[in-house]
Amino acid sequence: MNLLDVLILIPAIGFFIALIIPRAMENAIKMLALIFSLVSFVVSLGLAYGYRTGQSGLQYMTDFVWIQNPEIHYHVGVDGLSLWLIVLSTFLTPIAILISWNYIHNRVKEFFAFLLLLEFGLVGVFSAWDLFLFYVFWEVVLVPMYFLIGIWGHDRRIYAAVKFFLYTMAGSVLMLVAITFLYIHAGTFDYATILAQLQSGKLALSHLQETLLFLAFFIAFAIKVPLFPLHTWLPDAHVEAPSAGSVMLASVMLKMGTYGLVRFCLPMFPTAAHENAPWISILAIIGIVYGAAVAMVQPNMKKLVAYSSVSHLGFVVLGIFSFTQLGLDGAVYIMLAHGISTGALFALVGFLYERRHSLAISDYGGIATVAPWFATMFLITTFASIGLPMLSNFVGEFLVLQGTAQSNFAYTSFAALGVILSACYMLWMYQRVFFGETNEEVKHHVYDFNLREWACVIPLVAVMVWMGIFTQTFLPPVSESNDKILTQIRMSADLKAATHSPVASLKVGANTNAH
Amino acid sequence: MPTSFYPSADDLLRFSPELILSFAGTLLMVLDPFFRHIQGKPAPRIFGHLTIAAFIAAIFGAIAANAVPGSSFSNLLIVDGYATFFRVLVLTIGILAVLISYRYLAKEVAETSEYHALLLFSVAGQCLMVAANDLIMIFIGLEISSIATYILAGYLRNDKRNNEAALKYFLLGSFATGFLLYGVSIVYGITGTTKLDEIRTALSNPGLSLVAVSIAAALIIVGLGFKVSGAPFQMWAPDVYQGAPAPVSVFMATAPKAAAFAVFVRVFMTSFQQIATGWEPLIWISALLSMTIGNFAALTQTNLKRMLAYSSIAHAGYILVALAAKSELGTAAVMFYLAAYALMNIGAFAVVIHIAGKGERHLRIDDLAGLAQKQPLTAALMTVFVLSFIGVPLTGGFFGKFYIFRAAVESDLIWLAVLGLLNSAVAAYYYLRLLVVMYMHEPGEAVQALEPMSAGLDIALVLSAVGTFILGVLPGAVLNFARNSASLGR
Predict the structure, then answer these.
(1) Residue B490 lies in a domain
(2) Residue A77: strand, helix, or coil
(3) Is the pLDDT score of B287 beyond 60?
(4) Range of B204's domain?
(5) What is the interface pTM, i.e. ipTM, of the complex?
(6) Which of the residues B390, B412, B423, B432 would you substitute to probe the A interface, choosing the one with the greatest number of A C-beta atoms within 10 Å?
(7) Residue A30: inside a domain, yes or no?
(8) How confident is the model at residue A509 (pLDDT cuts 50, 70, 90)?
(9) Paired strand residues for A67
(10) Size of interface A-B (CB pairs under 8 A)
């Protein structure tokens, strides 16, 4: 049993203990959830500390047979791609617990138990190396989030929760068929084995098969990302969810989709990915511009942040389908940076809601005079989200634009619009909420951070700055894994190039190595 | 061929579950006058206890019989892993059915020995069906099971809906049995035998009229399709399930259905396997219709029992997908799914019975409102069953679906698997409604008036939930058994 197994187990154990504690002992349940999530976080830091860049293969790997026939393994491990996403999950869970501390009054026990279950699922998704296990964790994540939105959400919570569940479910059943198909032809669910078989040509797929399998996986992931036009569940779910739900949803759960694209879609179906890249990139660009444009006109802060996510995630998809080292690195970097900055935005908006009980921008104004620290921290977060240099998102967006420019410059110029627009909508919102005249309601209700809120905000802001300046903390393992994925794509392209000619175009990105 | 008129010890052992159950059922009715009062006090529960004891004894009998596999009574009966699996399954369903009936019968002031005796006879018929190696034996088992179930459906004879349910079930059921028998007679006319393995051998003779065989197979599909409530023969199910007493509804939706599916698979995978390409389209058409009709009709239901009835039609559709795969894998999937489905359905119905109260007053879906606040544990267990219905991982329902659709994909029915899984996404919508009202609505009248769980319901609920989890997390043992016995002795 290694550190990763411990990390997967801790939230699960916490979940069961939380179920056993009598519901009257609310503080005990909260403390338990906080302690377990903090311990997870510390363990995940240990994971990052012990991770060795430059060492080939999975690290912290555990592999044993879970079910004999069909052979399903509990096979987990960490590589550079999943490492920081796991840390992101464990980093945000205690923050989600802290921001719900006083906000959740009814059914406290279930709420914190579900947060721990969610953490269990998320860590599992990012570390699973057996396709079946991946699917299990993928679906397990769905249940706690459904309840988080449905029970503790705002007015239209039930609609949002059901929509969220059904969208994801509809996508993932197709993925299940694809996984089953692969299992039957490869004889195993083990991802590494399937990949090796696909690359060596031992498992040969016809062109149609590859395209259909690619689409089955892609649609499941694209719904989760969400890619325009499959994004409509997102504004509902984000707006209706309680703050902790929005934070986890935007910061980590959306990344499940992009992670799936990088982890599974590209390496397994390189030809199909390449062939379909043009329209996917165009959808991503539409998402970038459309998300930004819609965010601009939102009267509701949470909705604004939600649409900004559609826009930011468009960048991620664009970067992934640029098939360049820079683009992929940037995509992963945005995944992390967006997790931090949007998580912080949702947390801050949640704090405002707790004070003033409104999400409407027009109900606010002049907060900067009554709560200067609040205004400062919100401004830093806003800057991070816009992609100001020295802060987290800038690095990722720059890399994505650079990478896209290498493959198709037209895409870059349109996508860059999104960067400009994001400055417009975020700063405009900031101006309306924090400057101007302070109305009576705001004067009475809005006050500066308390200790608990500081405890949430400081780590988030610190990480934003860190990610903006010390990129080398995060990038080396990420680039290493991305490099491996790109090499795999090229290898199978070379293999197919022997028989097919059109795939030769794959080699466009072959000579660009960023670092 | 008959060597001796008297059955050997092995014969008796192989037949022991049926013997135990029929004996217990008869005994129960004879002892009724003596047991009704113990030391001057009414002791109605004793019938239930005795019934459970008989079921447990029969389970031991079935397991002991599995130690001496083989055929008995001039090859009329065959005990193999497949038969044992289904015997244990229907016997377990019997135990759970008794457990969820205690409180219900007490409330309706209807605690008689007949109810339990009928349950015993019905399960005895099902045990016979799943172990039959002869079309006539199948017919006899089916009739024993059905007649007992017809009566059970109308058990509360002063209740109008009970009477309607019983009459409907009886009329349509006997009509369907007629189809089955007609098919059997044609098969006998062509092949000169009713033994399943001999029919198989006879059919490999190229001189046979395949048209007549196909007609016979189609007629048998009609008869059995009715029993498993597969479309287009599903019409009776919603009305009957809604009208019958709730514990009987869930019994009908699980035990006779499991036995009918067992027969369905055994007949078509042994006798008619050679003409599989002929019957396969009929099966997948029925599967597709059942899934679609069941799921889409369930979307608009407001009555819990009716919704679960439509959902059971949809689940029959999933199982038919596995049959359409016409492989050993498909057979194993049918076995696994029926076990998983029985557990989750009984669990869900136990909660429905709990909510419904005396005279089944609270049967609307909205009557579940706020259950999570009033009785969190009950709601949590119901959630397990609902998630299993939806097919969320770590529940038996998920692995069941997975094995079914895996069998379909392996038999190149990918499109059917895709349609089936999309169907299950549609189904998620109405199942989620149960979670929505339980967790996201304020307690309504029904839940406010709720009394604490009774011990019987509690045990049934916990057993079903634990079973659902075991099938979802560690399905290995059950699945291996299913895989090993799916060859049907061929």
Answers:
(1) no
(2) strand
(3) yes
(4) 9-485
(5) 0.86
(6) B432
(7) no
(8) very low
(9) A72
(10) 84
